[in-house]
Design a protein that fits this description.
208 residues, mainly alpha, two-stranded antiparallel sheet, 9 helices, 44% helix, 3% strand
């Protein structure tokens, strides 16, 4: 549990349900972790009887209940954190001073992903988004900034670097990056990027 409620979102960035401001989950202070109800200990004879009568299996299937006794009221009634919006990611990018390379890369990767939603389709064939979320110039600048993090050795992911170069249409550079990966490190994604870059295909493609 964080100081802003229960941790129910896997995103490293969360939105405060009270003030709606984004915050990093890693920065949230852990205030309490409610413990499960203690299980009643049984003697050897009682355990054998429970096994013979089938009660043991039924008890094993019972959900573990949380012990709320002794938990502060404000913690027990903490409000769930919310999933951050794309606006939250942009706020963190533009409003945070001294954003670490690791966090900047996380934010720019999210912007990269969301910026391509109009090119993705749902299982029924309809686009995930009808119109682009960002302008072409903004999306390109975001990719170039992410590429700079790679060039300055602040991120170590040759596969991602090659994919950025491919989507920017810099196919020869993408192939050069992939050539630095040892053969045993060429996974299915890297191999797919190689195939697309060889064909000078910079379009959004499924790499998995």
């Amino acid at each position: 549990m964080t100081s802003i409620g229960y941790e129910i979102v896997s995103s490293p960035l969360l939105q405060c349900p009270l003030c709606s401001n984004p915050f990093w989950k890693q920065d949230a202070k852990e205030v309490d972790i409610p413990q499960p109800e203690p299980q009643e200990k049984k003697g050897r004879l009682a355990s054998i009887l429970a096994t013979l009568t089938g009660k043991k299996k039924k008890e094993e299937k019972k959900p573990v209940e949380t012990n709320w006794l002794g938990v502060p009221n404000d913690v027990a009634h903490a409000v769930n954190s919310q999933v951050p919006t794309i606006g939250d990611w942009l706020t963190i990018l533009n409003g945070s001073k001294g954003l670490s390379p690791e966090r900047e890369s996380i934010v720019r990767q999210k912007i990269w992903q969301k910026g391509n939603d109009h090119l993705r389709t749902r299982p029924d064939g309809t686009p995930c988004r009808k119109t682009p979320l960002f302008s072409n110039d903004f999306s390109e600048q975001n990719l170039l900034a992410l590429l700079d993090l790679h060039k300055n050795n602040l991120i170590d992911s040759p596969t991602e670097k090659a994919e950025i170069l491919r989507q920017l249409g810099r196919f020869d550079e993408a192939l050069q990056v992939l050539e630095t990966i040892k053969e045993e490190g060429l996974n299915r994604i890297a191999t797919r990027i190689w195939e697309l870059a060889t064909k000078h295909d910079g379009s959004l493609q499924s790499l998995s």
